[in-house]
Amino acid sequence: MEFTLTDPGPEPPADAPLHQSPIYGRAMVRLGARVWILRVEDDGACLAQAQVISRRIMGVPLHWIPRGPVWAPGLPLDRQQAVLARLPHATALRGVWLATPDSVEAAASYHHLGYRALLTPQQVAELPLDPDPQVMRSRQHGKWRNRLRRAEGAGLHVSHRPFDTARDAPLLGLETAQREHRRYTDVTPTFVSQWSKAAPMATRLFQLREHGQLRAFMIFLMHGTRATYQIGWRDPDHDLHSAHHMILWHAAKYLAQKGFHQLDLGTIDTETNPGLARFKLGCGACARPLGPSLLRLPCARIPLAIRRAAV
Description:
Keywords: Transferase. The protein is an alpha+beta fold and 311 residues long.
């Protein structure tokens, strides 16, 4: 197996989440991060690819693999473990390694390699898309579908276009004010701007208007055959609680028609924010746990059998 480090650019060997998209890497570089693409090949075939975010914390190098690696379809588990076993040693990246596997099942391979859990797994909401709108509407929960119908009959208008960093800067200001009021910090509008600069046609802005006045918007990032909901805003001075139902429905139909097969709606927490969780799941999305955040110290030992398999 041959391990190579490059700058963000190569596409992964299979469908990948946002954090393993090359656009994500280029956006993070624009934000000042050091980003590597770790590509593993054997006889010219790509077995795996991992986007690695590197930084220093109190002088200690930290290398994070968010929701990766992305494996070639059908790659056997023993070969995956062999790749993971060589990651810290087959590159010049020395220090502490942090991984957030894309699934609970994927996390199992890390435990044999000296990784230890730091944080419990998060859950994400994933909406399957279908070219037939009736199929997607049939998956919606009853209350969610009823709110959508009320919004459709309220004379609201939804439009969409690529996000423009200069023209749409005031919208990010609205979201920032909403963020400060609600005291959440998980996603920053700055990332949306840098993503749009890295790939201008990969950011879609959906806006809802009532009598010509902007009442709500949502921004989606497009990557591979997936799209990801990033940020949204609703006018707090108007009682349009179904505005995002309407926007999300229009976005799902548009993305499905463009050939995207999944819309990632981000993390959900039924305890701290049950209303948002109901909104995301009510549209027909499925909840899926990610793997836990895992830490591997430089002194971690790898079982001999796995080290031999990695040679």
